[in-house]
Write a structure and sequence with these properties.
Blueprint lengths: L3 E3 L2 E3 L5 E6 L9 E7 L6 E6 L6 E3 L7 E6 L4 E6 L8 E8 L8 E2 L3 E5 L2
Parallel strand pairs: 2-11
Antiparallel strand pairs: 1-3, 3-8, 4-5, 4-9, 5-6, 7-8, 9-10, 9-11
Length: about 120
């Protein structure tokens, strides 16, 4: 179970980025998919998670009302729309598969760098 992330980059504060997570080799319907991030010297932080059917979404307090997670099971893709980005959002973002949101991930990708800076 290894998702593949894309869409990171450099953005100015207040800007937006959309991260994408492509999954293969497993049935997306059976897993919750989420994102966690890790910045240098900081602990891993859960960002968001979306469960299977029915799709319920969860967000960390620091990103609530700014980030939106969505999934397309047919295309085997999960997206994370990030708006109103702040410098403290800078981190490597990892897409991960979970048996259930809130549990430890069962697999994750290589990560994609997001840098918010002027």
């Amino acid at each position: 179970v290894q998702p593949v992330e894309s869409g990171g980059g450099l953005v100015q504060p207040g800007g937006s980025l959309r991260l994408s997570c492509a999954v293969s080799g497993f049935t997306l319907d059976y897993y919750a998919i989420g994102w966690f991030r890790q910045a240098p010297g900081k602990e891993r932080e859960g960002v968001s998670c979306i469960s299977g059917s029915p799709a319920k979404t969860y967000y960390g307090d620091s990103v609530k009302d700014r980030f939106t997670i969505s999934r397309d099971n047919a295309r085997k893709r999960v997206s994370l729309q990030m708006n109103s980005l702040k410098p403290e959002d800078s981190a490597v973002y990892y897409c991960a598969a979970y048996v259930q949101c809130g549990r430890e991930p069962v697999g994750w990708g290589q990560g994609t760098q997001v840098t918010v800076s002027s």
